[in-house]
Amino acid sequence: MISRYPIIVMSVLFFCVLSLAVAASRTGADESVPEITVPELKALMEKNPALLIYDVRTPEEYNEGHIKDATLIPLAELPGRYTEIPTNKKLVVYCLAGRRSAKAVAFLREHGYDQAVSLAGGYRAWSEAEPHESK
Q1: CATH of the domain at 102
Q2: Which residue among 45, 56, 95, 102 is the active-site one?
Q3: Are the C-beta atoms of 27 and 102 separated by less than 8 Å?
Q4: Could you confirm whether 95 is annotated as catalytic?
Q5: pTM of the model
Q6: Is 87 helix (H, G, I), strand (E, B) or coil?
Q7: Structure confidence at residue 49 (pLDDT)
Q8: By CB atoms within 10 Å of each CB, which of 14, 72, 74, 116 scores lowest?
Q9: Residue 93: enclosing H or E segment and its boundaries?
Q10: pLDDT tens digits along 78-96
């Protein structure tokens, strides 16, 4: 008679690993971060030319093009550099498509940056909507 124990154990392990993989693939699955759209950002920039904008992409991506006057702090460097960012001002964070900036905003909000928002669609959305405003 064949024991079913190894099959049951393997099935349980498979579903545990699958659950962990799904959870790890989500960016803050349970925590949503506030976003701003490209038109909203454009309007905000017109009202507040000193608006703080942070690019969390790599230096290479930044050099290929970025939102005018954006400050580069790559996501990998953010934990060591976030104290450079004022906590009492509205700030917009962006990356290429929004995934890294969502992680950055979640991190910043956990550290007291209540006015941090992510640019929906990231630099890709910005450059499609406002190519003349990019470097």
Answers
A1: 3.40.250.10
A2: 95
A3: yes
A4: yes
A5: 0.74
A6: coil
A7: 84
A8: 14
A9: strand 91-94
A10: 999 999 999 999 999 999 9
